[in-house]
Amino acid sequence: MVRIKVCGITSEKDAVQIAQQTSIWALGFIFVEESLRFVNPDKARQIIRNLPASIAKVGVFRNHSLEEVQFIRSFCHLDLVQLHGSEPPQFCEKLGKGVIKAFGVDESFDPSQLDAYKEVVDFYLLDSTQNGKSGGLGIPFNWDKIRNIKTPIAKPLIVAGGLRKENIVACIRALQPFAVDLNSGVESAPGKKDIEKLREIIQILEREVKK
Ligand SMILES: O=C(O)c1ccccc1N[C@@H]1O[C@H](COP(=O)(O)O)[C@@H](O)[C@H]1O
Fold first, then answer.
1. How many Cβ atoms sit within 10 Å of the Cβ of residue 203?
2. Any idea where the N-(5'phosphoribosyl) anthranilate isomerase (PRAI) domain is (predicted)?
3. What is the spatial distance between Cα 205 and Cα 211, in angstroms, rounded to a whole number?
4. Whose Cα sits closest to atom 15 in ligand 1?
5. What average pLDDT does this structure show over 147-171?
6. What is the pLDDT of residues 103-127, one digit of tens each?
7. Which domains, ranges and CATH numbers included, belong to the chain?
8. By the number of CB atoms within 10 A of the CB, which of 116, 158, 160, 172 ranks highest?
């Protein structure tokens, strides 16, 4: 089954509940201060301390300095860093292993921009973008922009952007991603995860595998 990352964790209660009651791949912590899902590094470190090693802990950054990313990665014991801004390949390279590079997809998206990152990141993440903004928009991008690419994508693909129970099957059928990134689609309010919404998506995905 496709792997699941649940992003925007802000409370220990949500993190523990998801870790104990589901078999997700990764949990994400957003260190972007303007985000409604911002969590400070002290709180994230506290939450992460009580999570099993089997779940990947991902820190989400947007145009932070290299020093900030390195400090928070080490302080919070993150397994992966997700760069959700306009970080160039050289920036990713300096971070070494464990980098997810996010790219915003709109009608002008040019897939050849991924090439410059293929030696310096571990995963590509595709998210929607609108008016130069991306991250937590709650809207899917046009998957045909990716489905129609002729050459194979060089890195495992994580798909994000408004994924919820109504569109999750169509997304995985269209793109066959390595993982899906669930955020606003499994919330009762920004930063508050709704385990029932998550369970429902997991059941839908399990049914899809059996087909
Ligand atoms: O969710 C946010 O507030 C956020 C802010 C800044 C950068 C990234 C953010 N979240 C990431 O956005 C995508 C898609 O989220 P959604 O499903 O559209 O709500 C996901 O990768 C989150 O990690």
1. 11
2. 5-203
3. 10
4. 136
5. 93
6. 999 999 999 999 999 999 999 999 9
7. 3-210 (3.20.20.70)
8. 160
Which atom, in ligand 1's list, is nearest to the CA of 158? 21
- Distance in Å from the first CA to the final CA of the chain: 12
| pLDDT at site 149 | 83
**10 CA → ligand 1 middle, Å:** 13
